[in-house]
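Methods, example record. To illustrate the input and output format used throughout this study, we show the complete record for YbaN family protein. The sequence lines were provided to the predictor; the line carrying structure tokens was produced by it.
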Amino acid sequence: MSRSPSPTPARPLWVALGFVLCGLGVLGLLLPGFPGTVWFILAATCFSRGDPRWEAWLLSRPVVGDLIRDYRAGLGMPRRAKWAACLCITLAVGFSVGRIPVLAGQVAWVLVGLAGVLFITRRVPTRPDGRSGA
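The corresponding predicted structure is encoded as:
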């Protein structure tokens, strides 16, 4: 689902932003509790606006390409990935909420975590583990 590239002056900026987002995606693959997929999805969008060749390159990556295609096709997440995401959110909120000095901030942080878990469990479609839409 690629878009036609932006006018010439903005194209290099879209490509540069795509690479920055890819870097964040790689960090997300390496760091527990830091999401990776969302950054790759955003990078693919930037590449589609800047240079479709880079979008094609990203989509050809073994794991990342499948995740992006599945997202674009509306196939959702495997059940195990949903459990892992919810567990990471819960642990991140649980370990960090005590570091927020203001009660209102703590409550807000817990609500943000709860909203994330609810979004994943209620709005993101579930597909069987190990099945890709590619």
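Annotations derived from this record:
The mean pLDDT is 85.
Helices lie at 11-30, 37-50, 52-59, 62-72, 79-96, 103-122.
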